[in-house]
Prior knowledge:
Order of helices and strands: HEHHEEHHH
Structural class: mainly alpha
Distance between the termini: 77 Å
Shape: rod-shaped
Mean pLDDT: 79
Number of helices: 6
Strand content: 5-15%
Largest sheet: 3 strands, antiparallel
Oligomer: single chain
Radius of gyration: 48 Å
Amino acid sequence: xxxxxxxxxxxxxxxxSLLAASDTGMxxxxxxxxxxxxxxxxxxxSAGTIYPRLAKLESEGLVTKVADGRKTVYAITDAGRAxxxxxxxxxxxxxxxxxxxxxxxxxxxxASVNDAMRTLRADLAAAAREARSxxxxxxxxxxxxxxxxxxxxRLQLQAAEAALHEFxxxxxxELRQHVARGNELGDDTVQALRDGLAALRTDVTAxxxx
Length: 210
């Protein structure tokens, strides 16, 4: 458990020392800010901590309060200064304790920051691993799709080439049989073959470029 910043009764004495150092008095927020500055921002008391102690000091006649617009200004009284003088050695010990508290709080903040950085690095590493895993899965899926498309294209090409061979062999057989039977192969038949093949090529090429 973290020990308290001020021992019992020390905060009220420290508030008196802050008020004694001010010529014009201080309002609550200024006292809170002054304490935060003394601790380098590692400890900032809440209003719920400061105002009850100021009220107790006022009831004991050690401080006075005066309304200044919407703010209340606190000032140390002669009785308050007398208590500070009487407890001067104790105040020196409080200053030493404050220094120790600042170091302790700084160490706690440093440890907290280090823990946060370690957690952040772990989160970033986990996110990076997840991103790499997703990238690998996406790559595998893309390669699988490409492989599937390539396989389908090769099969279609083989089917087209087989159709060409079948057409060529069947037509060649018909032509040779026609000539073997003593029939004449007229120019018009050859031209018809050329025209038909040219038209077929034009149609297939157009389909390939769609």
